[in-house]
């Protein structure tokens, strides 16, 4: 019997940002969970797909990025942690959303999450953060609070469009980038990171009753949902994972030209994020798609490879990108 997968990283959205052991190799800097205000290093697997205020980030953008992080992280805790029933989680998320809109409107939110909404209100006011993108994240967390299945890949990408893509768009907004091509490539990268996390965590999610593989893909490979939930490894399952990895890689490569449009240190950080996502997909392939019972991760030994690949990314004529949503 194969060994059970290692414990899941914190939460499902922990990407877009998202949720690495996945792709981000730069050290992260964020206020600790206790909410005492100290800056403390946070492991990459603390909130996957989300490069939070690393040393590559301009100092003036660290507070709004940290505010977005804590908003998303706290919502993830509400949706995903503890033993509360789904109805209670959804009620708390509704209250959390109400506080978001109150804070955005310069009102006084409830006293439940002051460590979240005080800095977030300041970030919204100073940087004119699009509140709709923050609300979209809550839609994804609400989907995670209940058992959700996806009929086809369009449904999976719709989830990514709420769980991961808003993070990329918020970060682009902070850097003053808002052209349609850049937004589409950002969506492709963020969706690819979310998909990579799904296929990396296939066994972890199955053990928790979660299925992010589209029903149409399962049917095409002759796999019942119950087989996936039972973590029944097979040649059919591994072939499916290989196909899903190829899908994620195609999306990542479609979005990759964005690294040349993001200026300064942020562009370099994005290079590492892209290469980290591609690296985890490569590791899934090396496992032969056997992520029902093994969870590939990025470690210190991958840093030289990621650095070299990030440094050698060449500007190319970007492919046509269809926004994944």
Structural write-up:
With 325 residues, the protein is an all-alpha fold. Helix content is 55%, strand content 2%. A two-stranded antiparallel ribbon has the order 1-2. Helix 1 packs parallel to helix 4 (131-145) and helix 4 packs antiparallel against helix 6. The relative contact order is 0.15.
| Computed Rg | 19 Å
Mean pLDDT, nearest integer?
Answer: 83
Shape: globular
Fraction in beta strands: under 5%
Number of strands: 2
How is this structure best summarized?
The chain has 325 residues and is an all-alpha fold.
What attributes does this structure have?
2 strands; 55% helix; 325 residues; 13 helices; single chain
Write the layout of secondary structure elements.
Layout: E1 28-31, E2 39-42, H1 62-80, H2 86-104, H3 114-127, H4 131-145, H5 153-163, H6 165-174, H7 180-200, H8 202-207, H9 215-220, H10 225-229, H11 235-255, H12 264-286, H13 303-311
Antiparallel strand pairs: 1-2
Helix pairs in contact: 1-2, 1-3, 1-4, 2-3, 2-4, 4-5, 4-6, 5-7, 6-7, 7-11, 7-12, 11-12, 12-13
């Amino acid at each position: 019997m194969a060994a059970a997968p290692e414990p899941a990283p914190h939460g499902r959205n922990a990407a877009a940002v998202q949720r690495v052991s996945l792709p981000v190799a730069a050290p992260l800097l964020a206020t600790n969970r206790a909410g005492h205000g100290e800056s403390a290093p946070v492991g990459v697997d603390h909130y996957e797909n989300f490069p939070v205020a690393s040393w590559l980030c301009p100092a003036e953008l660290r507070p709004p990025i940290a505010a977005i992080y804590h908003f998303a992280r706290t919502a993830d805790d509400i949706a995903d942690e503890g033993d509360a029933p789904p109805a209670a989680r959804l009620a708390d998320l509704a209250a959390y959303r109400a506080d978001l809109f109150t804070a955005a409107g310069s009102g006084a939110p409830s006293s439940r999450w002051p460590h979240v909404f005080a800095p977030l209100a300041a970030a919204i006011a100073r940087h004119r953060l699009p509140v709709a993108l923050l609300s979209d994240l809550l839609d994804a967390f609400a989907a995670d609070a209940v058992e959700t299945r996806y009929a086809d890949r369009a449904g999976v990408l719709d989830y990514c469009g709420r769980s991961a893509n808003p993070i990329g768009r918020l970060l682009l907004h902070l850097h003053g980038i808002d052209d349609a091509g850049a937004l589409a490539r950002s969506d492709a990268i963020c969706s690819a990171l979310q998909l990579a996390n799904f296929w990396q965590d296939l066994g972890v999610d199955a053990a928790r009753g979660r299925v992010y593989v589209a029903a149409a893909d399962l049917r095409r490979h002759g796999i019942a949902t119950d087989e996936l939930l039972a973590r029944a490894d097979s040649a059919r399952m591994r072939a499916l994972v290989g196909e899903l990895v190829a899908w994620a890689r195609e999306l990542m490569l479609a979005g990759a030209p964005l690294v040349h449009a993001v200026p300064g240190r942020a562009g370099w950080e994005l290079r590492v994020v892209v290469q980290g996502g591609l690296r985890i997909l490569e590791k899934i392939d090396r496992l032969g798609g056997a992520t029902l019972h093994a969870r590939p991760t990025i470690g210190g030994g991958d840093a030289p490879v990621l650095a070299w690949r990030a440094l050698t990314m060449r500007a190319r004529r970007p492919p046509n990108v269809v926004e994944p949503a």
